[in-house]
Amino acid sequence: MPRTGETLTARARWLRFSTALGVCLVMAIDHGTAQELESGLRGPVLESEINAVLQPGVQVRAADRADRARQTGGLPTPGYSPATESAATNDYPQNDDSLFNAEEPSSSRAAAAAPVRSPSTALERTRQRAGRNNSPSAGISTRQDEEELDDLATGTVRARSADAEERAALARAEAVNPRVSAVESSYEAADANPYAPLGLRLGTFTVIPTLEQGITWTSNADSSASGSEAVLSETTLRLNAASDWSRHAATAEAYGIYRKSVSGDDVSELQGGINGRLRLDLAGDYTALASLGYTVRPESASSPVIITGVEDQPLRHTIDGSLGLAKDLGKLRLSATGAVSRETYGDAELTGGGTLSQKERDATLATLRLRAGYQVSPALTPFVEAEIGRRFYDLKQDSAGYERSANRYAARAGVMLDIEEKLSGEVSLGWISEDLDDDRLDSVSGLALAASLNWSPQRGTTVGLDGATTIEGTTNAGESGSILYAGTLRLERQIRANLTAEAAAGASWRDYTDGAHDLTLSGQAGMTWWLNRTLGLTGRARYETRTSSLPGRDYDATSVFFGVRMQR
């Protein structure tokens, strides 16, 4: 029978063994529950797993297995990580063979004593790997790292897609070889107007030449009361030039028309002109405007000066020039413009031979216009204008002994319009008067009407309105002159890209100081069909009639033109 002391010692040993076994079981259960919560439920805890936990150095070996799994590409599972480095080094001597062996090989103790440097969880290790991939030396991060971060953060396990590796390879290839767009494209934008002229480049100007050649039939060759039918060859040359300067602007226009009879009434006449405009943008919101023009044409049969018994009407030469300065002060628009107009006449050829001088009609008109406007809105600017000037005749007295030089006075009120591409221009109404130096002659005065408007109701359609008031001198004995009101309404429509139609209606009213008057009405319609950008076919018809209170001035004329038009 054993002794009492030995029995107590055995019981104490058994008690200590039972206590240690219970602590190990509790730790194993807690460890398995933590793994299930982090990596997903795996079912019941096996007895072999509990025994593996009870083996010495199990925590260190679990961390080593997690590191090896991460290095081989497998998804790491979070393992136990002590709170301090001292806990990572086992303070108790352990042995792989027995739980109670107090001695452990030196190599095992050294491995157990080394501190654990790897991240405590797989989430932290994945974040570190993603950070290395995002560094400049590692290139761009892959989509797999982003998915691992999302999975570990939400506690879910994502199944890898079948083409995950292919997408990652394509992403790496695109990062190394980025896509480059084509230098040139085979696509060419459609030309907005394939039949518009291209023009010729002359220095800093673009010049557009147009040549028109055709045949005209007319019922009244010289637009006179006694005119007769004729077939005419008509040639027209026009040149339009415009600058492309970054600052300032200049434009120029030139034309020439030659008409020669082919059959019928004998007609041979030449007319032409040139006009240029210049705008200079100066400092301090100042703008300088200049223009210069010259025209030459035969005296019209509708002129207020009636010359009888002549073979051909005399040539009329006109030179116009102006210079102005404009200034903007906030919404206030101020301008001053000086203008000079010079008119000279050639000698008239008499029917029986010889010439008749027209020098007594040569005169120069100089005027100064002052304008002040206020910009109510960018589209509307009302203005008032005052004009003063003088008409100088080269001869102080004409052949009848009258002094026809005169002083001019005018006042107008109007509005300037600028509604983007829809409506632009100005219209005004006022009073104009010329007081002649000779007391025997009455003043020539009346309403002053002026308009210059362009309206585009829709794309491809342009409507224009032009109006002017002109005081005309005369050399008829006892007459002061006349005042002429003239207006034209124009319509142009682009029916197709290569088909353009145009129409115009005009009216003029001439009021003489002795109470007589002339009324002239006209209408015209035409079309141009472009075969290509350079060559087109054109035709137009025109009718004009005049009724007068003076004898021998009524007439009407009908004409039809057909020809070709060339442009560059």
Comma- or semicolon-separated keywords:
single chain; alpha+beta; Porin; 2 domains; 18-stranded antiparallel β-barrel; 3-stranded antiparallel β-sheet; 19% helix; elongated
Structure commentary:
- The structure is a single chain.
- With 568 residues, the protein is of the alpha+beta class.
- The protein is 19% helix and 46% strand.
- It contains eight helices and 22 strands.
- It has helices at 4-39, 47-54, 58-71, 85-88, 106-113, 122-134, 143-154, 164-176, and strands at 200-202, 205-218, 230-243, 249-264, 268-281, 286-298, 310-312, 315-329, 332-345, 348-350, 355-356, 363-374, 380-393, 406-419, 423-436, 444-455, 461-472, 482-496, 499-512, 517-530, 535-548, 555-567.
- The strands form two sheets. The protein has an 18-stranded antiparallel β-barrel.
- Strand 20 and strand 21 form a beta hairpin.
- The longest helix is centred in the N-terminal third of the chain and has 36 residues, at 4-39.
- The radius of gyration is 52 Å and the shape is elongated.
- Mean pLDDT is 79; it is low at 1-6, 33-43, 74-123 and 130-143.
Structural topology:
Blueprint: H1 4-39, H2 47-54, H3 58-71, H4 85-88, H5 106-113, H6 122-134, H7 143-154, H8 164-176, E1 200-202, E2 205-218, E3 230-243, E4 249-264, E5 268-281, E6 286-298, E7 310-312, E8 315-329, E9 332-345, E10 348-350, E11 355-356, E12 363-374, E13 380-393, E14 406-419, E15 423-436, E16 444-455, E17 461-472, E18 482-496, E19 499-512, E20 517-530, E21 535-548, E22 555-567
Antiparallel strand pairs: 1-2, 2-3, 2-22, 3-4, 4-5, 5-6, 6-8, 7-10, 8-9, 9-12, 10-11, 12-13, 13-14, 14-15, 15-16, 16-17, 17-18, 18-19, 19-20, 20-21, 21-22
Helix pairs in contact: 1-2, 6-7
